[in-house]
Specification:
single chain; mainly alpha; about 0% strand; rod-shaped
């Protein structure tokens, strides 16, 4: 697991918390912030996943 994957998951968690707080307090701005954080976290994790896949493939082809 690389730093992009870890940061991405962390951002998704923060986003879920902000979304839940926004719903609980009826704060649409906080809810939207949470949604955006989750989206950004998913993108960052996907980037990290792609980096890991590329590294794994490189290891397989160059032992």
């Amino acid at each position: 697991m690389n730093k992009d994957q870890v940061k991405g998951v962390g951002e998704q968690i923060k986003g879920k918390v902000n979304e839940a707080v926004g719903k609980a307090t009826n704060d649409p701005a906080k809810e939207l912030k949470g949604d955006l954080q989750q989206g950004a976290g998913k993108v960052q994790k996907a980037y990290g996943d792609a980096k890991e896949d590329a590294k794994d493939q490189a290891k397989r082809h160059n032992p």
